[in-house]
Amino acid sequence: MTAYRTARKRDAAATRQALVQAAAGLFAERGYERTTVREIAARAGVNQALLFRYFGSKQSLFEEVVAGESLRHLRETPPESVLETALRGLLAAGSEDQGQRHRALEICLRSAVGGTATRTGALLSEEYADALATLTEAEDAALRADLVLAWLLGIGLTRSVVGKGALAGADPDEVCALVLDCARTMLEKLPANESR
Amino acid sequence: MTAYRTARKRDAAATRQALVQAAAGLFAERGYERTTVREIAARAGVNQALLFRYFGSKQSLFEEVVAGESLRHLRETPPESVLETALRGLLAAGSEDQGQRHRALEICLRSAVGGTATRTGALLSEEYADALATLTEAEDAALRADLVLAWLLGIGLTRSVVGKGALAGADPDEVCALVLDCARTMLEKLPANESR
DNA sequence: ACCGGTTGTAAGCGTCTGCTTACAAAAGTA
DNA sequence: TACTTTTGTAAGCAGACGCTTACAACCGGT
User: Fold this and answer.
1) If one looks up domain B12-183 in CATH, what number appears?
2) Is the CB of B119 inside 8 Å of chain A's CB atoms?
3) Which pLDDT tens digit goes with each residue over A102-144?
4) For the stretch A118-147, what's the b/e string if a residue is b when 16 or more beta carbons lie within 10 angstroms of its beta carbon?
5) Quick one: which of A146, A194, B64, B131 has the most CB atoms within 10 Å?
6) A50 touches strand D (CB under 7 A)
C-alpha cells in the first residue's frame, strides 16, 4: 500500500493526498475528537509534523476533508436520490468499501457530536437539509428535512458506534424500505421504493 | 447553592449525591468523553480525589448515574408513552429544567458516541428498544424499535450539539406531531397524537 | 483525653494531546 | 560545483487527562 509512496519520495502532492485520505477514513470511523494527528500520520505513512506543515492544524485538515470530495459528491446527487444514497452509504459503513460512497455525512455527523468541528459540520448538514427540503411542499419543509437528516445521523451512529442488535445486523435493503416508506410521510415527493 | 454543603461538613452521603447529580448533568450536556472528572468535582463543589474514593473510576461513576434514576424512570413509564416522553425530554434539553425528566436517553446516547461508555449505554438503549418493540406485531419489531430509537438519538444530538436551524428552534409540539405521526408507520400500536 | 477510622485536601505521577522546533537529506538553479 | 529551497525526520514542549498518594482535619466511642 505504501509501495507507491516509497517508490517516489519527496512528493508533496502525494503526501498531502495521503493525509487527506487517511484523515477522511479516520474521521468517518471515529469522529473528529477521537482521531489523533498521530493516527492520521501513521495511516498515511507520513511524519506527523508534515500534517502541520501542509494543513496548519488538525481543524484545518478537517475542513479540507469535508469541503473537498464530500461536498462535491453531495452536489452531484439529485435531491430525490440523496436520502437513499446517503442511507445506503451509512449502512455500508462497516464493510470495507474502497469506493467513493457518501462518506460526507458520516464524517460530519460523527464529528458534530464533539462540538469542536461543529461549524464545518453544520455547514455540510445544512447543505443536505436544503436538498431534502426540496422534496416537500409543506410549510415546515425545513423542519421536516432536519428531522429526516437527524434520523440518518441516528442510524449511522447506532450502527457504527454501538454494535447494537437488530439495526447493526439488519439487511440494508430492509432498513432502506422501512425508512424510505416512513420518510415519505414527511417528504411526499420522495420516489417510491424501487430497490428489490 | 453550596449553602447546604457548607452548613454540614463531612457528610459522605451528601458528597456522593452531589457527585452523581453533577455527573448526570455534565454527561447529559457534553457526553461521557468530553466531561472531565475535574469538571464534575468542581460542579459538585468537592475535591476531585473524592470522586475516586467513592466511585473508583470515572467509568464506574457513569454506570452508577445511568443505572440509577435513569433506568428506574424508564421502567415506570408505560411502553406506549415512552416515545413521546423521551422525545419531549429530549426537546426540553436546552431549557433549564430542574425536574426529573427523561435524562437517561440523553446521557447514554450522547455518551455512546465516544465508545468508552458503550457497554453501559448499550444496555440502557436495549431497554428502551425492548419497550418500543412491544408496540408492533410486525416480525421485524426489533429492527423497527431500533430505528425509532435511532431517530430519537439523532434528534437529540442535532438539537443539543449543533444549534441547527429549523430543528433547534422548532416548537416541541410541532416536532412531536410530525415524529409521532411518522413513527406510527412503523409502530402501529402507538397511540394517536393527543397533544394540542 | 485519647485513639482509630472516616472525610476532605494539596500535590503530583504518568500518559496522551495538538503543535513546534532544529536539523538532515533531496531537488532545483547557477 | 556551490547555494537556496523544498521535503522529511526526531525530539520535545506545554497543557490536559484519569488517577494516586501523603497528609491534615474531624468525628464517635471509650
Assistant:
1) 1.10.357.10
2) no
3) 677 777 777 766 666 567 777 778 888 899 999 999 999 999 9
4) bebbbebbbbbbebbbebbeeebbbbbbbb
5) A146
6) yes
